[in-house]
Amino acid sequence: MTFHRIVQTHHLYDGYRQVVRIGRYELLLLQNEGDIALVDNRCPHQGFPLDRGPVKGARLICPRHGFAFHLRNGDCLQATSCKLATFVVQYDGAWLGVELPDYM
Ligand code: FES
Fold it and tell me: Is 40 helix (H, G, I), strand (E, B) or coil?
């Protein structure tokens, strides 16, 4: 596993969004109501980018067909078999980042 820095924490604010590419991953980091979420930027339904989707409550809405994914666990409101990949954020001093497998 390797830690990848994404952003320094003092840059974060509610409404913050950043798409980050690390190896084969395209991740979406966002802050909503004080909570940080790091999720796959590709919708598990048909792969549409999620970075422009609205957030309602704790759910990210896919702009393509409107599926709603819980930011904490990726559960989908409309289809239980359609789960968004979520990632645990980690900290290294002032940096927020993520640990990903070395074989990515
Ligand atoms: S592509 Fe996201 S809900 Fe269909």
Answer: strand
